[in-house]
Specification:
single chain; 57 strands; globular; 753 residues; mainly beta; 2 helices; 4-stranded antiparallel sheet; 6-stranded mixed sheet
Length: 753
């Protein structure tokens, strides 16, 4: 097997970072200018989550799609071809899109996902294009975190309202409804409830833009769970185009506490207003009773309301869905987006099956106001377009895959492994192995294939036999710590999880083993038959997963107060929100039995005797806040006592980068983040050590990859890799010496697909 050396592969969403390097460990310092010439190339696999969509009324050829963490794509031929138009911007998570009705060249993009789950991306404000997406300009609201909706006056494109949910990781003043009357030069916060409440949705009367409705949502997200609902949530109305607002209470509306709210005004009849409201469905929250109901309707412009429907299919997992759209030519025809896709034809009283489905996990919809038959839906599979009112759909996958982790094997050319959101683990080549003919050397989507596992974990090849691939995860239908051993030779997998129990709906406090949504799997660098996984313990197998044994005590804080029901008004427990778990495991390549473990409640532990004794070294780390997620540990290949850690605090409302180095087995630590700019997107995901040049490190944050050595530090912006849910999302591969010594390296522009 080839040894690993020198080319960097950064897999944030779906890009490879290629650049030249020599195998000589001691060589002249590489100029920072050379690193600036490095580029990304798309290698796959095909993508998934899209979160925003807009088209041009009356023009069936033009569509814009915003991705959860892949920027913006545009089609000018009805969805056949798509071009990325947002790659040069320093953020890739899109929460909303708006096109000015009076001038389709004016396009607004609000950044940051608003469909809430624990692995979502933060934005950095609102952007504007005056040339139909060719160029963009940041227009402010940088600290709002997530912009769930953008409303543009149909007659005056300088009047714009932004519905800002906020980052939702704690109290903040930068949330609510913001309004500009000068095209974004200045913004006024026109609707603000409190620092715990943001805007979840906004609806404008298409016939009178002075009439607006806004849903305000009290929401808080942390590593250990979410809480949706409270006195801040409510439905508001404005009759002066957002300058002032009035909270709507009583008159048939449910009372507090409420959660997420979505609202729409029927284009054909402005008196008809629909509101989806999270109530709790009668399940007590904090020991207090809640109300029931899903859909409310007003027939007099919002003065009086009635509960129309209590079917959970309308909203499903409320934090992740809760949107509706009204047909432009029938006020009784309304579409609802959840894991399913449903509609009503009688004003909300009953649901009628669709002729066909646009896909699963649906989030947003655009209907041509001039033609109710033409519609587009974005979901966790991409975008679907219909021109016959949903009787059939064109399903389109864009190159926006969200990869949680990436590993590489030692073949030539090497293969890349990763776990894709809304899919299993995947394997694909770094080189197409196809030359000439149609497509040239591009890597076709067909050469990627599943290798078992699930959407949220790892896919790790055996370093001795690359045909054996270990995969983990708790998503994509397998909840509770799934481990699979896949054989590439016959494409068969065997489930070998530690404790084969489906724990869907159970809290962390209730389960035997707390396996997080993205629990780690690590193969020993000294014995490829020794494989480690982490719950609150470190488990090991030496017989291919036939049996497992525990080699540690509970390495976490084991705080029961943060292992309770997650979700607030609508409980939602699937392992994502499990705290008190081992999140990273690494064994020293230099010294067998030196094993590091990091937890998602802020502990770093080490054993030097293969697990017989463990030492908590967290107290030795200077200026480390509590309750960070130790997102990865890099045990040095050069010194047995040296290790690097990255610690992610963004779900604890801290977005600064945290990375540390120890050279004495954790007795002392040094912060190594000097020089990294602090921003909404500067929190650290992953740190890696160069396999050839001692002292050269690579750090991946939510917006950049940073290279540092003994003499230089270079930040390289990585559009379309940034902001993904990825944690351990880049790896470094070593060319064989004969190939690398020539200094011959190839890079491809990121725009090549």
């Amino acid at each position: 097997m080839a040894k690993r050396v020198g080319v960097g592969l950064f897999f944030g969403a779906l890009a490879v970072f290629c650049g030249g390097a020599s195998t000589r460990a001691q060589q002249a310092q590489i100029s920072p200018d050379l690193y600036n010439e490095m580029k990304f190339r798309y290698i796959g696999p095909v993508g998934n989550r899209a979160t925003a969509v807009a088209g041009i009324p009356g023009n069936p050829n033009v569509y814009y799609v915003g991705a959860a963490s892949g920027g913006i794509f545009k089609s000018t031929d009805g969805g056949i071809h798509w071009d990325p138009i947002f790659d040069e911007e320093p953020v890739s998570s899109i929460g909303s899109l708006g096109i000015a009705a009076s001038d389709p060249n004016i396009v607004w993009a609000g950044t940051g996902e608003s469909f809430i789950r624990s692995h979502i991306s933060v934005g950095n404000g609102i952007y504007k294009s005056l040339d139909a997406g060719k160029t963009w300009k940041l227009m402010g609201l940088e600290k709002t975190g997530r912009i769930a909706n953008v409303m543009i006056d149909p007659h005056n494109p300088d009047i714009v309202l932004a519905c800002a949910l906020g980052h939702a990781y704690g109290a903040q003043p930068d949330r609510g409804v913001f309004r500009t009357t000068d095209g974004g030069k200045n913004w006024e916060k026109v609707l603000f409830v409190d620092e715990n409440t943001g805007c979840s949705d906004m609806g404008m009367d298409p016939n009178n833009p002075r009439t607006l409705f806004a849903g305000m949502w009290q929401l808080e997200i942390h590593t250990y769970g979410r809480k949706s609902g409270g006195p801040g949530s409510g439905l508001f109305k404005s009759t002066d185009e957002g300058a002032t607002w009035k909270r709507l209470e009583g008159h048939g509306l449910p009372h507090s506490p409420l959660g997420r709210i979505a609202v729409r005004v029927a284009p054909r009849d402005s008196n008809r207003v629909y509101a989806l409201i999270e109530t709790g469905d009668g399940v007590p929250m904090d020991g207090k009773p809640t109300q029931s109901g899903q859909l409310w309707r007003s027939d007099d412009g919002g003065e009086n309301w009635q509960l129309i429907n209590s079917d959970r299919q309308i909203r499903g997992r409320t934090h992740y869905y809760t949107r509706e759209e009204v047909s432009p030519d029938n006020e009784n025809e309304v579409y609802f987006f959840t894991s399913a896709f449903s509609r009503t034809l009688d004003g909300g009283h009953t649901l009628t099956n669709m002729p066909s489905s646009p896909g699963g996990d649906n989030h947003e919809m655009w209907i041509d106001p001039t033609n109710g038959d033409r519609m587009a839906v974005v979901n966790d599979g991409g975008v679907s377009i219909s021109v016959n009112r949903g009787h059939s759909w064109d399903h389109i996958q864009l190159p926006i895959a969200q990869i949680y982790h990436v590993t590489l094997d030692d073949q030539i050319p090497y293969f890349v492994y990763g776990n894709k959101q809304d899919g299993p683990s995947y394997r694909g080549p770094s080189n197409s192995l196809q030359f000439g003919g149609f497509g040239g050397s591009q890597i076709s989507r067909g050469v990627w294939h599943p290798v078992a596992g699930s959407e949220s974990g790892f896919a790790t090849p055996d370093p001795v036999d690359n045909n054996i691939i270990w995969s983990t995860g708790t998503g994509s239908g397998s909840v509770g710590g799934s481990v699979a051993r896949f054989d590439e030779r016959n494409h068969q997998a065997r489930e070998v999880e530690v404790w084969p129990e489906d724990v869907s709906g159970a809290t962390a406090a209730e389960v035997k083993y707390r396996f997080n949504w993205e629990f780690p799997v690590t193969i020993s660098p000294h014995d490829h038959n020794k494989v480690y996984v982490g719950s609150q313990y470190v488990h090991v197998t030496t017989d291919g997963g036939n049996s497992w044994r525990i080699i540690s005590p509970d390495l976490t804080r084991n705080d029961p107060s943060r292992m309770q029901i997650s979700g607030g008004l609508t409980p939602d427990n699937i392992g994502v929100e499990y705290a008190g778990t081992v999140f990273a495991i690494a064994e020293s390549p230099k010294e067998a039995g030196v094993i590091w473990a990091g937890t998602n409640d802020g502990y770093v532990q080490i054993t030097r005797d293969g697990g017989k004794n463990w030492t908590n070294v967290t107290k030795n780390i200077p200026n480390l806040p509590e309750w960070g997620t130790v997102s990865n540990i890099e045990a040095s290949r050069y010194d047995a006592g040296t290790a690097y850690i990255s610690v992610d605090f963004h779900q604890m409302n801290i977005r600064d980068p945290f990375a540390y180095k120890t050279t004495d087995y954790g007795k002392t630590w040094t912060s190594i983040t000097n020089g990294i700019p602090h921003s909404m997107l500067s929190y650290a995901h992953c740190i890696r050590e160069d396999p050839v040049r001692k002292g050269l490190l690579y750090l991946g944050t939510a917006s950049t990859t940073v290279k540092t050595g003994s003499r230089s530090r270079v930040a390289c912006r990585t559009p379309r890799c940034i902001g993904s849910p990825c944690r351990n999302a880049f790896a470094i591969w070593r060319w064989p010496p004969t190939a690398a010594a020539s200094g011959s390296w190839t890079t491809s522009p990121r725009s090549s697909r």
